[in-house]
Each structure stands twice: as C-alpha cells, then as structure tokens.
Amino acid sequence: MSERIEAILKGLDDKAAIKQEVYQRTEAIFNQFRNNTREIEEKLVERLQKSSNLVEVVVNHISDFEFHLKFSGDTIVFIMHTNVFTFPPEHEVSQSKYVRYDQRRGHFGMIQVYNFLSDSIKYNRQADLGYLLARVFINSENHFYVDGHRQLGSLFKEVGRQKIDSKTIQRIIEQAVLFCLDFDLYVPPLDVMTEISINQKEYFNNPGGMPTGKRLGFVVESKR
Question: Which helix (H) or strand (E) holds 12?
Fold first, then answer.
C-alpha cells in the first residue's frame, strides 16, 4: 500500500474520530437543553397556576433533534444540526490560542434557537418566518461559543475559557425567552393592506393562509 493511501486512511480515521466525538458531545448537550427547558416549564407553570390560567407554557417533543418551548403567542424552536462544522480561518474562534494549539478543538456541533409565532406552528403556515435567536457551538471538550442577539451575542465568546454546563444552558434558555417577550409582532404598513382581492379575503378566513412574521405583519401582495 502506498504512503499516500496510508496518509489518506490516517486522515479519514482522525477526521471520523473527532467528528464522532463532537457529535456525541453535542447530542448530550442538546438533551441537557431539553431537560433544562422542561425544568423551566415546570417552574413557570407552578407560578402561573397561582396567578393566572390564561398563559400556556408547554414543552413539545418533536424528534430526537428538535423540541419546542411554547409560551403564550411565542414558540422557541431548538434544533440540533447533525453535521459538524469548523469556522473560517479568519474567525475569532479559529484565531484563538485555544484552537490554534490543537486544530481538533476547532470542530463544533451546532444547536440553533429560533423564535416563531405559536400560531405559525399551530396552523402550519408554511410561509411564515422564524427568527434566529442564537447558535450554540460545542466541541469535543465541551468548550463552546455562542452567536446571538443582545446578551446572547456577547456573554459567551471566550471559547478557550468556557465549558458549557447546566447553569450556562439555563441562562441561555432564559435569555432567549426574555428576548422573545420583548420582540413583538409589528402591525403591517397601511398601504400594504389598502386593497385586497376576493381570493385574498378568503385567505383571511383561513388561519393557515396568510404568511406572518414578527417583523412582517400580514403579507398581502397588491395586484392591479
């Protein structure tokens, strides 16, 4: 067997090994996200039962790679990507001393956190938009990095110094919920809805027919 073939086999073995480690770590962290979310659900339901029965809080299992936290008109969707990623060479993660010391540390699994309107999921409105709140990246050593909005975009940037744990996961989930509560559905511009056709009117009578997003309102095309 040639040296090149040997080098290829070694490279494949090394790459497969690190990717499998990252995948397993990410899967374990994703399950911890699910468990922490259920704990938050229990605490909120317990408190809400004493003060109000108008707000529904529930965790829905969708698959091994997706679950939802529904609270009132919002739903946070947690999705684990099944692939393993690296950052571009110029990215701050790739440039960190932690990753430059050992390139295997630069392989990450990814958990995505989206905000959808609850009605978008309830009525299966296929054209509705969800908004990315955060991406959580985990490597084989449980070190992590978060891209996100507001505090989620600034709190967790020191990949070489931080390891993800239950307390950190709890904080990420709570920050995501707080962001959603402060991220309201906008009224669409008046001139967008000045005229509608009979066909568009029928859409209004069908909850699944009108594409809606928090920063879109109802989307109605004017056809003249």
Answer: helix 3-51
pLDDT digits (tens, 9 = 90+) for 121-159: 998 888 788 889 999 999 999 999 999 988 888 889 999
Please list the residues that pair with 77 across neighbouring strands: 68, 114
163-187 pLDDT per residue, tens: 999 999 999 999 999 999 887 655 5
Nearest alpha carbon to residue 62 among 43, 77, 82, 72: 77
**pTM higher than 0.90, yes or no?**
no
Are 85 and 57 members of one domain? yes
- Give 9's contacts (C-beta < 8 A, 6+ positions apart): none
Q: What is the mean pLDDT of residues 1-11?
A: 78
Closest Cα partner for 140 from 81, 181, 99?
A: 99
Same domain as 81, residue 42 = yes
The C-alpha atoms of residue 87 and residue 94 are separated, in whole angstroms, by 6
The residues near 70 (Cβ < 8 Å, ≥ 6 apart) are 56, 57, 58, 59, 60, 118, 121
Number of domains the chain is built from? 2
CB proximity list for 18: less than 8 A, separation 6 or greater: 84, 104, 107, 140
